[in-house]
Specification:
Radius of gyration: 44 Å
Strand order of the largest sheet: 1-16-3-12-13
Helix content: 25-40%
Largest sheet: 5 strands, antiparallel
Number of domains: 4
Low-confidence stretches: none
Mean pLDDT: 89
Length: 661
């Protein structure tokens, strides 16, 4: 029987040896509690950053409402740039697209013919009983090849649809046979069709046989209409506050700035339309920002609070990182914002203040008064925002490196120009004041932005307006120029001179006439010029109409007066990085993997890992200690047991000794 309770003795001794583990546990619990508290702070800062980002975006600020007294007849929508307006509208005619149909074919597999079909868009007008066609200069023509692979009625339909030329083709069975139906995709009188065929099957491009059965030209002179018009191309006719307006479509966005009108029916009485603007969005963004700010500051304050009654501090009392965050927030709130282009350069000036406890609040009356007085200035206080005092100077873009500027003066030395060619005068001596385009003069060459093109006009007699439209259509329909993205505008003035303008502004735009143009000769290539401005003390040359500042701010000069470098100023430009941007940038850095919060949490995680390592080391040592103690006390127990046995033997021997006397 054991003489010593080894388990009890070792357990008690080990309890003493394990005392440091409790201290480690207490330290680790404290560290984990602080890490958790920083997690709460990080979450609050992230929510605050989201509010700051919303405040940094000027597009979030203004909401526009649009309403119609009868959307069944006229509906309305408005973009963010739309101004407040009230007006009435009456519709007398809706815009329609032209619809044509062919004669009867026995089957969808019936052969139509071979050759090419050329689709042109334009307007038929009748003057003194004579109908003529004027090309739509904004539309490209399209030539479609019909050969043995697609010369059936079905094949022609598919070829037209696959060309995506702005015409929809279908086959209709009217009970007597099959007809090819053609519909101009776009409505409006300038989108009527002229269909020209090159009928290789019978070499007759106008008869009622072969591919020429699809020819359509309603012109009185030289026209052949082998298709039937089932619906004419018409403009929408309507009035806005009594002003008569004609438009090619029923969805119209160029009558009232920023407003899209949809004409649904001819009206029987005026429809009242209203556009309203609200600054409620900016107010809501500011209120959300204030709420998020107060949540953050409350969280920071509570995490470092000290209770004098209990003489206990909160979990993060004394944390330098928290104090640093609080200081950064206070400094950001009190900062001045440059580049707003007005007087509102601090939160206090628009009614936002913080009390002695750090609680932020909004004086709505003062804020609304600031919005009414200078909305762009208020927007510039909160968001990244550029503004120009001259309406013909447009702020286009900025990047992350763009720095604030305030009231930087701008003088325009030279406006950007387009490459322009003006020919000698044409002789419109034909019937009705027309010019004849024929086989001898219909082809000419151009070089636009370095791309060469050969252009062929349609033969016929043209008035000045018709010839200008034909020239612009044929040039802009040229496949080589379309591929290169080159376009021109063409006009013929009262002096009968052709003026061709490259639509591209600046030195990257060039224009030359490389072979004789309608008897006016050729012209060497000319280039446009880039805008040149004086901004502050620097002279800048742009690309086209656009100027790029060293800071990344881009603006365009759309016209207006030019002067010498030291001449009259065209006003000022300003750019601000508002409060929203400033807080967003600060919080982004603060919450980054190298920011204050992450650095502090990383430090505590390292402490926790170090404690875990010490605990592991101590536990390994305690195993050895326990083993040693058990070995020692087990050996002692054996020794005591032996002594006890010896004692028992001696006692027995002594008991057996003879008793004396």
């Amino acid at each position: 029987m054991a003489m010593i309770d080894v388990n009890s003795i070792v357990s008690q001794l080990m309890a003493v040896e394990q005392q440091p583990l409790k201290k480690f546990d207490v330290k680790n619990i404290g560290i984990q509690a602080r890490i958790s508290a920083y997690g709460t702070i990080k979450s609050a800062l992230a929510s605050f950053q989201a509010a700051a980002q919303k405040l940094a975006n000027a597009d979030n600020f203004t909401s526009v409402t649009a309403s119609s007294s009868s959307s069944e007849y006229v509906s309305i929508s408005a973009a963010k740039n739309a101004a407040e307006a009230k007006f009435s509208l009456e519709v007398s005619q809706l815009a329609t697209n032209q619809k044509l149909s062919s004669g009867i074919f026995a089957a969808t597999t019936a052969e139509v013919g071979t050759g090419t079909i050329t689709l042109d868009f334009g307007q038929y007008t009748t003057t003194a009983g004579v109908t003529s066609f004027t090309s739509n200069p904004d539309k490209s023509s399209k030539t479609i090849t019909i050969d043995a692979s697609n010369n059936t009625l079905t094949g022609v339909r598919d070829a037209i649809n696959n060309a995506k030329a702005g015409v929809s083709a279908s086959i209709i069975n009217d009970g007597t046979g099959y007809k090819l139906a053609l519909v101009s995709t776009d409505t409006g009188e300038k989108n009527a069709l002229r269909i020209t065929t090159n009928d290789t099957g019978d070499a007759n491009n106008t008869d009622a046989a072969g591919l020429s059965r699809l020819a359509y030209n309603a012109s009185t002179v030289g026209g052949v209409a082998n298709l039937t018009q089932n619906q004419a191309a018409k403009n929408a006719l309507f009035t806005v506050d009594g002003i008569a307006i004609s438009k090619s479509a029923n969805v119209i966005s160029d009558v009232v700035d920023g407003v899209t009108l949809t004409l649904n029916k001819v009206t029987t009485s005026p429809v009242n339309l209203t556009v309203g603007r609200s600054t409620g969005n900016i107010t809501k963004s500011v209120e959300d920002f204030i709420k998020a700010y107060n949540e953050v500051t409350k969280n920071l304050k509570e995490s470092t609070a000290y209770n004098p009654e209990t003489k206990q501090g909160a979990i993060l009392t004394g944390e330098g990182t928290v104090r640093s965050i609080q200081m950064s927030l206070r400094n950001a709130v009190n900062q001045m914002i440059s580049g707003t282009g007005g007087n509102y350069d601090a939160l206090s000036k628009v009614g936002i203040k913080t009390d002695k406890n750090g609680v932020m609040s909004l004086d709505s009356s003062k804020f609304n008064a600031a919005l009414a007085a200078d909305p762009q200035g208020v927007i510039g206080l909160f968001a990244s925002n550029g503004r120009a005092s001259d309406s013909l100077i447009r702020i286009d873009a900025f990047d992350k490196n763009t720095q604030p500027v305030s009231d930087l003066s701008v003088s325009v030395i030279n406006n950007a120009t387009q490459a322009t060619q003006t020919t000698s005068a044409l002789n419109f001596a034909g019937v009705g004041g027309t010019f004849n385009v024929n086989a001898t003069n219909k082809t000419f060459g151009l070089m636009i932005n370095g791309t060469a093109a050969s252009v062929t006009l349609t033969e016929g007699d043209y008035t000045p307006a018709q010839l200008a439209a034909e020239l612009q259509t044929r040039i802009n329909s040229n496949s080589a120029l379309q591929t290169a993205g080159a376009k021109v505008g063409v006009v013929i003035g009262a002096d009968n001179k052709i003026v061709i303008n490259n639509v591209k502004y600046g030195s990257e735009g060039s224009l030359g006439i490389t072979s004789d143009l309608l008897g006016t000769g050729i012209a060497a290539t000319v280039t446009g010029t880039d805008v040149q401005v004086k901004v502050g003390n620097d002279i800048k040359t742009g690309i086209g109409q656009q100027v790029t500042m060293d800071s990344g701010l881009k603006f365009s000069v759309l016209g207006g007066a030019a002067s010498s470098p030291d001449g009259a100023s065209r006003g000022t430009i300003s750019f601000s990085r508002g409060i929203g941007y400033q807080f967003d940038a600060m919080l982004e850095k603060m919450l980054s993997s190298e920011g204050e919060v992450a650095t502090r949490v990383d430090g505590m995680n390292k402490q926790a890992k170090n404690i875990a390592k010490q605990v592991d080391n101590l536990n390994r040592r305690l195993v050895g200690i326990e083993q040693r103690l058990r070995a020692q006390y087990s050996a002692l127990d054996v020794s005591v047991s032996k002594l006890q046995n010896t004692s028992d033997w001696l006692a027995g021997q002594l008991a057996n000794l003879p008793k004396v006397g």
